[in-house]
Design a protein that fits this description.
Layout (H helix, E strand, L loop, with lengths): L1 H33 L1 E2 L5 H7 L5 H14 L16 H7 L3 E2 L2
Parallel strand pairs: 1-2
């Protein structure tokens, strides 16, 4: 009787965890897909992945990088015309440097 009850509980619990596990994995993949390397992405990719950055600002990021070299810190984006602290802050988790 105890074995049946344990088995029933285990079978009842696993389906409850499976959607959560799949959802967490999907979120991790989606989060990873949103990260963009500002040192090698083209303007179209930057505009697509960064919130509040359109094609013209993305082109400024690429132009700055081509003229001055790779970004060493995320806050170096402040040197790019049209990029302010608010834009950096809302994209900090989406930006990669390597």
């Amino acid at each position: 009787m105890l074995k049946r009850l344990t088995l029933a509980l285990l079978l009842g619990l696993f389906p409850a965890f499976t959607p959560l596990t799949l959802h967490a994995a999907e979120l991790a993949v989606a989060s990873q897909a949103q990260v963009v390397n500002i040192n090698n992405a083209d303007a179209a990719t930057l505009a697509e992945k960064l919130n509040g950055v359109g094609l013209s600002r993305a082109a400024e990021i690429v132009r700055y990088r081509e003229n001055y070299g790779p970004f060493l810190h995320i806050d170096d984006l402040l040197q790019v015309r049209g990029i302010g602290q608010a834009t950096i802050d809302k994209n900090r988790d989406r930006i990669s440097l390597d």
